Amino acid sequence: MALKDIIGQDRPVNILRGCIAKERIPHALLFTGDKGIGKRLTAVNFAKALNCQRVPGEEFPITGSFLFEVPAPEHPGPELETQSEACDTCPSCKKIERGNHPDVFLIGPEGDGGQITVQAIRQLEESLSYKPFEGRWKIAIVDEADRLNQSAANAFLQTLEEPSAQSMLILISSRPDLLLPTIRSRCQRISFSPLPVDTMSRLLKERFGDMDDERARLLSVLSGGRLGYALGDNLIDQRERCFSMFGQLLESLEEEPWEDKEAMEEWFEWSQLLLRDMAVYSATGREDFLMNTDRAEYIKAISRGAGLKDILKLARELYNIKRRLAFNLNKQLTYNFVSLLLRNNLGQSGRE
Ligand SMILES: [Zn+2]
After folding, report:
1. Same-domain status, 166 and 245
2. Ligand 1 centroid to residue 19 C-alpha, Å
3. Number of domains present in the structure of the chain
4. Judgement on whether residues 177 and 241 belong to the same structural domain of the protein
5. Are residues 7 and 149 in the same domain?
6. Are 176 and 33 in contact (CB under 8 A)?
7. Cα of 2 to ligand 1 centre, how many Å?
8. In terms of pTM, does the model score above 0.85?
9. How far apart are CA 39 and CA 36, in angstroms?
10. Domain limits for position 94
11. How remote is the CA of residue 84 from the centroid of ligand 1, in Å?
12. Is 213 a domain residue?
C-alpha cells in the first residue's frame, strides 16, 4: 500500500505529501491521535515515499524551524499525489513493507515492563549516525513513544538535539501528554482525528459488502471512529469479555484478574464506554441515546438502582486509574481495588 490508500486521514497525509513535494522534510515529527487510527501505517508509508526509487528528488534539505503544528498545504491537488507517492513495487518499497530495509527502523516498547529502553535508543542512535546505505533517508519510527523510560527519554533528547544528516524521526503516541515537554517541543506535530460515524459506516460497508447498516453503525460508534480498530480486532468479542468481567468484579473477587497489561487497558477503555451509557440511561431513561444500542437490556439492568452521581463518580475514579496504567500497576491489587469501587458505587444494581 501507499499513502493514497490511507483512508480517512486526508489532512495528515496531505501535510506529509506537501513536505515531500516541497522538498522540506522536518527532522522530527510527532504523530498523535487515538490508538488504531492509522498513525503507524502512515509513518511506514511516508518512509516508503521518502525512499521510493521511483519518486524524483535527491537530497532534500532538513527544515530547521520547530513549529508546533505543521500547516496543511492550501490546495492539495492531484499533482501532489503523483509527486509524493511511493510506487509500492520497487525494491525499497518492498523492503520497507517487509520491515527489512537497512535505513528504516521501527522500535517500540519491549518486554514485561512494556517500556522503550535506553539500550534500544542507543542502538537507534548508532544506526542513525551512518549515512543511508540504500535509500535517500534514514528513518526511525518510534511507536508508543510515551513509553520511553526516564533514561531512554534523556538519551533520545540528545538524538533530537543533534540530528545526523539525512535522518529523520517519527514519534508515534496516543498519549503525547506523557512525553517530556522538551521532546514534544522539538517535534513538528501532526494530529490524526477519528472518522465521523457516517463516513466510517460507509467505509465499513464498502469493505464488507454483506455488513448491514445497523452493524456498520454499531462498529463505527464502538471503535470511536478508529478504522484500524474496527477492522483489526473483533470489537464485539472484546466488548463482551469486558462487560462480563465488569459483572464479575461487581459480584465477587474470586475470578482471575486480567491476563496481561493489554487486557487491563482494554477493560478500562470499555468500562468507560459502559459507564457512559449507564450515565446516559440513568439521566434520560432513553435507549436510543446509548452507544451500545444492542446491549440496552444489560445496561438497563446494571444501572438499576445506581444513582447518576454514583455512576459519574465511579467513571471518574476508573478514569484516574486508567491514566496510571502506564506506571505498571499491580494486576491483583488493581483488580481488588476496582472491585471494591464497583461494589461501593453500584452495589445495589444488577441484582433484584
Ligand atoms: Zn517504490
Report:
1. no
2. 17
3. 2
4. no
5. yes
6. no
7. 9
8. no
9. 8
10. 3-191
11. 11
12. no
